[in-house]
From TrEMBL, chains A, B, C, D:
Its cofactor is heme. Coiled coil: none annotated. Pathway: Amino-acid degradation; L-tryptophan degradation via kynurenine pathway; L-kynurenine from L-tryptophan: step 1/2. Heme-dependent dioxygenase that catalyzes the oxidative cleavage of the L-tryptophan (L-Trp) pyrrole ring and converts L-tryptophan to N-formyl-L-kynurenine. Catalyzes the oxidative cleavage of the indole moiety. This is Tryptophan 2,3-dioxygenase. Binds 1 heme group per subunit. GO terms for molecular function: heme binding; L-tryptophan 2,3-dioxygenase activity; metal ion binding. Keywords: Dioxygenase, Heme, Iron, Metal-binding, Oxidoreductase, Tryptophan catabolism. It comes from Dissostichus mawsoni. Its EC number is 1.13.11.11. Belongs to the tryptophan 2,3-dioxygenase family. InterPro entries: Trp/Indoleamine_2_3_dOase-like, Trp_2_3_dOase.
């Protein structure tokens, strides 16, 4: 940006890495080189020759230059730039999980910040529609024909992004009656297939949640205690209601109680969970769900504060992706109307169908809100005994603490 | 964007330009080509190979890859992409003014929309800081040294933008005690000099304002009538005050009246105007100022509705550029502190000094608020006589109505 | 806001209304009163005693004060404040239409600005969710029980707003299996019924569109010319395709052509239009649709520039209301999960169902994008003959130009 | 908001507080009451009768109703509503600090979330200007006179907010040449004086920073180690430079080194710190500054992750308040111009002068960026020895964990 002096002379002095023996030797010479008047300047650093020369208007090539096509190109390029940044953050976070470095809890700040950065980028991307919306349907119509058969559906980075977060192949809405991958060329299709086979953010978070301290059956045993408390609580409620005089209210409350009992019975039914899992209605393993609920209830305990923030940010990503999809739908409605000329499924309706909970990867985290209970039903912790919530783990390997861990 | 079917088959049928005779002949063949399965696809169209391969981390080249440098690069590239779009819009608007096509009032919608689009882009750019702000001073410190001597000051596009809007050379704050152009390499410095010599948006708007219908001395003669009304009004106020019983209030009001008289006397003093102009405290010619004030007061008249919107949007640009500068200052404060290591003027203080009314190109439009008067002091229009406000001009030249006019 | 000197002494001098004879008489005295040290101060002016004392926490009343309930109350009060402002603008615009003052085209700026202000308020309201989203599901759970049976569904102002814009009674999704009005108390229900019977913004815009200059059969006769041009154009396309050599492409193009012909045949079929109207799939009369399309195609003509902006802003309102609904759904998903405890339709699903094109009042304006054609198919205007696009109408009645017209 | 079912029947069953013996007794009866069809409804809950009846137009009272005054009132009321919410959060955070509950690190999440909520509210308030900016200077002029002598300067809540965060009395810019408090009436002036005497957020954060674990001289002794490392590092740099061949670069680097040495010498000079403190150029005690720097460098250690976030959010508040002030300045410039009619300091210039680092309460946190050093100069921690960064403190008093602690 203009006028920001990234560099100030003092930096000539500092090197961020401790010098090796060899470097120490070379000191004087290195000094000379670093301070040489050369060095990189702004435009080269950012490769602006590439960036600002990449706007070629198809309408101009076809001899009918349409002013607004430039906006169309720049907007999409800005989206793709940011998609690249999101992938950069996402890959670094996945790497921390995959290498096991997440076990060193010092890395939680990094994980959390990078996920939060993805959130902030998506917020920007949602707002960014306001710029493209300055183009009217009539302006768009003037150059639309020249774009055939290009389609935003073909954004490789966006599909990779969905795959790496964890949108499952089998829950995707078909596009033009074809599997989503079949809309890509051979090479790109292979890349997509490969990303489907990598561990998704969903999967990695699941594994991490399964290790939530406090779930151990021979330890705090949260899950069993929680089950006992809930059904004790419900039974006490039942007794209270039964003691009431007969009335419409009493009846209503009793009906409600029965439903609550069913709800919680279902929560502790592992088979039912696995059934919902197989249908895609749940996405996290039974154990991971327990971990998430535990983090919810004990979020104020020192070791759970940052994990709780992380779960919140994951929901933010889902929410913002879905808002992005919805803003996209709204823009398309305005640009091309809701009815395609004819029989074929219109772009509008395809997009509309992707604004769905099927595309919410962390939908289980939202739905846990169904299983909240009063604070006094949550199993009590005693800080004198349950030290695990106060003592973070670290593993002092240079591997995980070094920047290479991204 | 994902899933937006830019193209639908019907467009095979439509051609946005009426066919030439030759084209008619080639019809069948053209048809074949157009529908050929080839055509451009998304990634090629947007030249994504260039866009998403342009992120080379200096820290990585120097053997110390720092994760956050990627964000730094992408953010700046996104800024430059949008600067290019702003220049695209700005040049098209300036072209409409330079060619005289603005006299065909059908072009006012185009002018207005494109200026408004610049406003919307600047809004986005102000918001975009929220993403870079996810990087802390400590993260930045880790790779800052590798950027030397690159500096955001070197953004050529931003300086061109300032020049084309109309930031005057002589009001610029020096950077590193040097003229702003001397911070650029020879080739770039020449480009900057050239843009200084082109007609600025300010200049073009000034000329257009000078032609505001209603200013003609042998016609409606707004300016003279306005002057008469004001001093009549002030005199009547004076009489009222004099008729009051003596009191502190009376004295205060009389003092205030005298000041008002001075203020308006100054408004009608062309020499004083030219003096302020020479000091950079005013920027528009005396005549243009009259036109602007006329548009303000008669903004509801049909021919002035869109011109009034235009003046508002020009203030929006000024305001948003200054907010952009201020947000930039805030970010730099956080990144490198307010004190440079040493004697030299710090980046923070340089930037701080550019958040100034000196950089507001259309400052006169803001300051007109000082000269508002009650509605009944404004010279009355009679639609039966003053037809000029109801009849727009057009010039039916294909030159101006064609898309080439951008 | 802090430090803004609304008032400066000079205003003691000015009165915005020309004085009546009586007032002239009273001049000295009035002067005294106005300048009296009394006058209103900030807190009284804004009635802050009411505003900042209206936060009573139910949880506190029930002896279990929950911190976050305060945020919940303030956020909803802020929404209601802005709803009131929207109604204020909406009523003033409707008044201009109802009184016929819209025929004086000087009032178009006012109409346009006020509709645009509604747009800006809705943008703020969409963003405002980000504040309430700092409350987690668990924080909400802590005081949710105390709110029964209050429900956001009961926002009277929001329902009035929907009615006055033109959400039709019969397209509303039932809530709790009941007509929406039956969820309100008697008095409120009557207010709602009354607002249903007032002319809606949709209806008023429809009437205005029906009067679009250029539609007259004995004048420019846009509609007939347009129909002729389209079918001429399509026939020429047909001939071109028939001249092609046989191929898969040729077949495809011919199929496409047939569909296009059907599409446009339907556009000119008034009976079909009325059928769609009766089903709620179209909302504007046949004549109004013609006016809208005319404004679309001739948007650059002086008299149509501001009307075109108005149509765009009406779509903005629809889009933003629907985004507001969608953001609301997202928040509710996070707060209470997607599954209600029991059989009854959950709040989440009710809200989800209102994010629908049924609730888009100006849906026809979006769908006109389906009927765009190449510029050279649009009937040509000749400014020498078709003066009507250059001469605005006014009606110099003091009634319409005075502020009372709001 | 519309359609959000705050309440679902299941809540009839749950009570968030464990029942007392007495309550148990009353169970049946309580049941009846709770489920009674009565209960509070939306409009009553939000006291909408007060909220939406508090818009009284002065212009209307004076017989000259001006449409836009309603927007002016509603916008300011919305600001005041949100100021109240900010004060609510601020007081709760200050309470946690004042009572010492902050020592129980479980409360850090609460502190952090509430400070973050203030950040989100300020973001909204910055955006909120976009609505008021739909009013032009001319619209404002029409009713400005009726507001005298009300002024936004008189916003009591905003001044209280500044005081409670820690804007010091003696650094305030005088308004109308008077002490800020003298612009308020007696009663309000007393409230302001009282808030000046309460512990500010700045003071409370300072005390908390002074207790940062690791600062103890007989423990990790960060400060002494840090000083040693820095001067060791600088000396090594010096040797390297001296070993270089004579050149311009060498000279430059040596000069730079000397400046760096001065800079860091000043950092470790307590007297100089106290001198800057007395002038208002620094705001935190010497010890607190050490704590802040320690949190900066060891931000990834488990116990410092949330404290680091907190420091970042405190800078966010400063930044956003200053952006709010700047946006306010921009709006005032547009509304009333930069020049008051006459000699007196104009509102514009007063506001301009408050956009200053003097009003940044946590300015020291920004300026710490000046004292960053390469990672290998930071004293090394050994997790096997320095356990304190992994073991959070709690104090299991019901006092601090209960909701009463807000």
């Amino acid at each position: 940006m203009s006028g920001c002096p990234y560099f100030e002379k003092r930096h000539l002095l500092f090197k961020n890495k401790p010098p090796t023996a060899e470097e120490e030797e070379d000191a004087s010479q290195a000094g000379v080189n670093k301070a040489s008047k050369g060095g990189i300047i702004y435009g080269e650093y950012l490769q602006l020759d590439k960036i600002v020369s990449a706007q070629v208007l198809q309408s101009e090539l076809k001899g009918n230059k349409i002013h607004d096509e430039h906006l169309f190109i720049v907007t999409h390029q800005a989206y793709e730039l940011w998609f690249k940044q999101i992938l950069w953050e996402l890959d670094s976070v996945r790497h921390i999980f995959i290498t096991g470095c997440v076990r060193d809890e010092r890395n939680m700040l990094k994980v959390n910040n990078r996920i939060h950065r993805i959130v902030m980028i998506f917020k920007l991307l949602v707002d960014q529609f306001s710029v493209l919306e300055t183009m009217t349907a009539l302006d768009f119509f003037d150059f639309r024909e020249y774009l055939a058969p290009a389609s935003g559906f073909q954004s490789l980075q966006f599909r990779i992004l969905e795959n790496k977060i964890g949108v499952p192949d089998n829950l995707r809405v078909p596009y033009n009656r074809r599997h989503y991958r079949d809309n890509f060329k051979g090479h790109e299709s292979e890349i997509l297939l490969a990303t489907e086979q990598e561990p998704t953010l969903l999967k990695l978070v699941e594994e991490w949640l399964e290790r939530t301290p406090g779930l151990e059956v021979d330890g705090f045993n949260f899950w069993e205690r929680f089950e006992i408390n809930i059904f004790d609580g419900l039974n006490k409620e039942k007794e209270k209601i039964e003691a009431m005089e007969d009335s419409e209210d009493k009846e209503e409350m009793m009906l409600e109680l029965i439903k609550q009992k069913e709800l919680f019975t279902s929560l502790f039914d592992e088979k039912r969970h696995d059934h919902l899992l197989s249908k895609g209605e749940r996405r996290l393993s039974y154990k991971a769900l327990q971990g998430a609920l535990m983090i919810y209830f004990y979020r104020e305990e020192p070791r759970f504060q940052v994990p709780f923030q992380l779960l919140t940010s994951l929901m933010d990503i889902d929410t913002l992706m879905t808002k992005w999809r919805y803003n996209h739908v709204c823009m398309v409605h305005r640009m091309i109307g809701s009815k395609a000329g004819t029989g074929g499924s219109s772009g509008y309706h395809y997009l509309r169908s992707t604004v769905s909970d099927r595309y919410k990867v962390f939908v289980d985290l939202f739905n846990l809100a169904t299983f909240l209970v009063p604070r006094h039903w949550v199993p009590k912790l005693n800080p004198n005994i349950h030290k695990f919530l106060y003592m973070a783990e670290c593993c002092d390997s240079s591997y995980c603490s070094s920047e290479d861990s991204d």
